[in-house]
Write a structure and sequence with these properties.
mainly beta, 5 helices, 17 strands, Fumarylacetoacetate hydrolase, domain 2, six-stranded mixed β-sheet, about 240 residues, five-stranded mixed β-sheet, globular
């Protein structure tokens, strides 16, 4: 017998290209990749690898599953004066990984679909933690920190390497790149994650952001897009 009400599992609508709802994707975990575009790594003061041979290991962090926002309304978070946007490809897993390290060539078998999302960041909290050599969970893993579009089945999106990714705020272009600029692509990241975690159906992976991260303020409207099939529109609303 449950002694308190069981929380509802966060869910994301899954739609066709035409906008018809196919059902819902229950979220288990949210993994995030840091510094996965060279231009963003440079703007954050990090050394970007000159080649794939010099990549080292990817940087991972996590957000709570209930951080997702599916209606576009993002309350300005407490504890910060510097909320930043980071537009990202989001990968949704529809199957469990086999035991052990996932071979790169099998990674595509796990992918259910894709979305476009924002990895919202309390940049001042993150910077303060970095300066002290402390974990920066409070800068990344907070309520409403993962706005996301509806998901599109993987087969309907096609070759990721040909697609653009962009973000506009109040009609002004802030971020723009192409997904072939990812330092670690989707098979790379699933392979590396499997060395550390048991990947399961329901997991999301936010794949990292290009350069151009900047502040979002109360009342700002945002429009994130990948190719012509994935779009996320929303607004920063008053704090709860």
């Amino acid at each position: 017998m449950d002694l308190i009400p069981a929380p509802q599992t966060p869910r994301i609508p899954v739609c066709t290209r035409a906008g018809d709802t196919l059902g819902y994707f229950p979220v288990r975990r949210i993994y995030c990749v840091g510094r996965n575009f060279a231009d963003h790594a440079k703007e954050m003061g990090a050394v970007a690898p000159a080649s794939k041979a010099e990549r080292g290991n990817p940087t991972f962090f996590m957000k709570p599953a209930d951080a997702i926002v599916t209606d576009g309304h993002v309350p300005y978070p407490p504890g910060t004066l510097d909320l930043h946007h980071e537009v990202e490809l989001v990968v949704a897993l529809g199957a469990d990984a086999p035991a052990g390290v996932l071979p790169r060539e099998q990674a595509g078998d796990l992918v259910f679909g894709y979305g476009v999302g924002l990895d919202l960041t309390r940049r001042d909290l993150q910077a303060a933690a970095k300066a002290k050599g402390l974990p920066w969970d409070t800068g990344k893993g907070f309520d409403f920190s993962a706005p996301i579009s509806t998901l599109l089945p993987a087969a309907d999106l096609g070759d990721l390497s040909t697609l653009s990714i962009s973000l506009e705020v109040n009609g002004e272009r802030r971020q723009a790149s192409t997904l072939d600029q990812l330092i670690w692509d989707v098979p790379d990241i699933l392979h590396e994650l499997s060395k550390l975690y048991a990947l399961r159906a329901g997991d999301l992976i936010f794949m990292g952001t290009p350069a151009g991260v900047a502040a979002l303020r109360l009342g700002d409207h945002f429009h994130a897009q990948i190719g012509d099939a994935l779009a996320l529109r929303g607004q920063i609303t008053p704090a709860l």
